[in-house]
Amino acid sequence: MEKNLNKYFKNGKLLMIPKKQTVKLEIFAFFHNLFEDGRNYSESEINNILKEYYVDYAIIRRYLVDYKFLNRDKFDAIYGKIER
User: Fold this and answer.
1) Angle at which helices 57-66 and 43-50 cross, to 10°
2) Where are the domains of the chain?
């Protein structure tokens, strides 16, 4: 993890989503790196990974999709990592 992100994490848990866009993107990149290239994930698999790091894992999942770190199918059932 980048040193400048350490202040946003305590005991491996994200404390808050920062308002500053550049830091927010770095945090989303951290989460992006938790997923494997070329692998499909169910929503529950995504949730299980993210909830290890943040209590409101659903907002992180939505941000990862909105910011194009993850994609999802039209039924919102299958997620995949977007290459960056």
Assistant:
1) 110
2) 21-81
